[in-house]
Amino acid sequence: MNQRIVGVDIARGLAVIGMFVAHLGHSGPDGLHSPSWFVVADGRPSAMFAILAGLSIALFTGGRAVPRGPALTHGWLRIATRAGVVLVIGLLLELLGTPVAVILPSYAVTFLLVAPFIGLRPWLVGVLAAVAAVVGPTLLALLLSSGADGTAPVETTLDENYLLGLVLTGYYPALVWIAYMLLGLCVGRLDLRSPTVQGLLGVTGVGLALVGYGGGSYLQQTVVPDSERTAQLIRSDPHSDATLEIIGNAGVTLAVLAVLLAVTTLPPVARWARLLLQPLAATGAMALSAYSFHIVAIAFLGNEVVWYTESNAVLAWFVVVTLVVCTLWMRFVGRGPLEWVMRRLTVGAYRPVPAPA
């Protein structure tokens, strides 16, 4: 069994808190974030969550060891059963009718799309992630954006065809988001405790962020789109699901992950970093519970806490309560409640059958 990597848990905790900010953060009369730096929570936390989901798939299907034979089959079953539980939880959360776009059903579908690739070497998975980051958004633009004749080949909405929405037309289309999970699968096969790997992730992350966001800004200032389809292809703004946004978001995640891995593994700062960041690590270790219960809390409080914020007071309460409860829960109880359900209802870790004496 793989020992938990604290830096990964902290990154996952940051992603959860970032989604709180995206859902509950205050906006001024002009519709802009207040404070303005809350813009960092637009699109990036959910992308980080997806990349870390792919990383988790790598960890629970062998870690650095690419699964083969019975281990590979077991890995497929483990992913499939986890996808089923995540889907059910997501569907139940959607029934609450909150104004939050619940990400879990799309995650479940993307899990299944990623499963066939867990037996590939990391470099090949990385290549496939890059291909998916180009092909997925391009297909999305071709199918959903209007061409010269003003029509799009696919105009079905999520409400009209639920499965099509999860794969193509929804808020988190699996056709595009598979790129994030494949990247996470690639990264999860590496030695994340190695300073060399951490440095490589950091440099790569900064480079991707500059290419994605910088390239998108340059193209939008210099290219005059001749159609909605062209305009979609050169976007890099949050939730555009365009290639440049994927590249930028991936870069941010890799850079943040590299820093967190470094400060939690390298002496002499590791001990203090682990202590100070323990609330985030606890939140990340029970991310499914933290994310799900924040949707339940929004349903209980009413949609006004999302649509009609007067300040960031509600957001602050959500963050503080989540960090405190998760820290205490991990300290005195252990596994999160939904994580416990996941463990009970899904295929467990692979244990090779001993050879007969």
UniProtKB/TrEMBL annotation:
Record's protein name: DUF418 domain-containing protein
Family annotation (InterPro entries): Bact_Transport_Assoc, DUF418, HGSNAT_cat
Domain Heparan-alpha-glucosaminide N-acetyltransferase catalytic: start-end pairs: 4-192
Transmembrane parts of this sequence: 7-26, 46-63, 123-144, 164-187, 199-219, 246-268, 280-302, 314-334
Keyword terms, alphabetized: Membrane, Transmembrane, Transmembrane helix
Organism, as annotated: Oceanitalea stevensii
PANTHER family assigned to the protein according to its UniProt record, in alphabetical order: HYPOTHETICAL MEMBRANE SPANNING PROTEIN, INNER MEMBRANE PROTEIN
Pfam families reported for this sequence: DUF418, HGSNAT_cat
DUF418 domain ranges (all copies): 232-348
